[in-house]
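#random but structural
TW: two for the price of one
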Amino acid sequence: MFSSLRDRLLPLFPSFVVVAGVLMPWVQVDPNHEGPVIAIYYPGMGSGLELPHGVALLVAVGGLSVLSLAGRRLRRAELVVGVGGAVAVGWFILSWQGAFVPAPGAWVTLVGCLLLAAVGAGRITVARRKTKTVA
């Protein structure tokens, strides 16, 4: 059964947020750091595409977006990708200390993953309510 246009487009906004975050830098020199900073380039300083987290999230949300536009209902997949992405990006954010800190791209990606998880969880809740009222 095909879903409405609203249901097809709902997961696209969090997916766009995730893609925007992945395309932004994930690591930067701490603006409050005083003293010398070693001249080193960490993966993620250019964009999140330099990291396995970013590539995997880009592929996952791209696939979810295409399938959502095709009318497939992927509530659990949205929830799993959102929670899994939030855990991976959250771990990445917590792992940086010292002269280098997470850049805005990591935070934007985290927000997008949390939004995707919320959309997936909300759609599961709505679907369960509909099946209970029908039965």
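TW: number two ↓
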Amino acid sequence: MSGWLLPALVLVAALAATYRCCLRPMRGGVCHPAPARTPTADDGLQRQLRQARAERDRLRAQ
């Protein structure tokens, strides 16, 4: 084998894998779903936001 054949084959294999695993699904509209959030963590964050907004409104009223 010549010195450029092996790197060229690796490049072609990498491009083919990238197309098959990344580009083709994106073009078809099928992407990996986002990880699911835990409802308890999201509820806790929403509760903290409500408390902070209520405190902000209370301080503005004073």
